[in-house]
Structure formats: structure tokens, C-alpha cells
Amino acid sequence: MGLRLSLVTLGVGDVEASARFYEALGLVRGAPSNDSVVFFDMDGVILALYGRAALAADARLADDRGSGFTGVTLAWNCRSEAEVDEALAAAFTAGGRVVKPAEKVFWGGYSGYFADPDGHLWEVAHNPFFPFDERGAVRLPGA
């Protein structure tokens, strides 16, 4: 049994509104979606949107809606700096908030951040040290 990331579930305030945001970024709603949960196939990893309170209840946790940084970001790697700029613009146009405009960063790449309508942070980056495979997936060098 190997550890792998199969699905990321985001707890959201309005499932349908969040689904429209991600559809505006080009994702296609998967067939098992319904009024309570929406699934998007992201080429090997599934993104799920589920009501925040329902997700907290499912994990038997309180939904305290903390106002600070949650300690989690998602990443969208791009093939070029121009593609990073395009992705951030698309997120903004779809209703997201650019948290940090793209810039050259200390580790040798180029990145910025946006928050989706529920505040989930996405880093959009061009990392010249992470190659893409023939399917368009990012691979660690030497892996």
C-alpha cells in the first residue's frame, strides 16, 4: 500500500457558487456530482467541493471559521512565467482575489497567490527545476 494523494476536498460556504468559480477556471464537473458535493478530475487527483460545516461534521470537528492562515496552500504549476500571469488573471476574472501578484522568487522561480471565494490559497508558479512529463504532470527531478 503506497501513500498517494487521491482527492483534495475543500470545505466551502456555497457549493454551487464555488463550483462555478472552478468551472470558470476551466474545470469540468464530474458525473458523480450532486447538490451536496461537486467533483472535478484534475488528471489523477480529484478536487471535491463540499459544504464547510458538513465537512467539519464529517470529521467530527467544530467549524470555528478561524480568520487566520490555515497552514495549507494548493499549487498550480505552469510551464512559463507568462502562463502564471494568465492563470492569476483568470482566477481574478472568475471571482478570486489575488493575494500576492506574481514575482521572481528566492528559489529561482516565479510565483504569485490567489484565494478562491472561500479563501483557500492557491500558489501559481513556474518552477524551472520541476519538469513536466508527456501527460503534462509535474515530476520531481530524479524521481
CATH class of the largest domain: Alpha Beta
Number of beta strands: 7
- So how many helices? 3
- CATH superfamily of the largest domain, please? 2,3-Dihydroxybiphenyl 1,2-Dioxygenase, domain 1
- What's the pLDDT, averaged over the residues? 89
Largest sheet properties = 4 strands, mixed
Would you tell me which CATH topology of the largest domain applies?
A: 2,3-Dihydroxybiphenyl 1,2-Dioxygenase, domain 1
Low-confidence segments, ≥5 residues, pLDDT <50? none
Structural class: alpha/beta
State the domain count: 2
Query: What is the terminal-to-terminal distance?
Result: 19 Å
Q: Strands of the largest sheet, in order across it?
A: 4-7-6-5
Supply the CATH architecture of the largest domain. Roll
State Rg. 16 Å
- What gross morphology would you assign? globular
Portion in beta strands: 25-35%
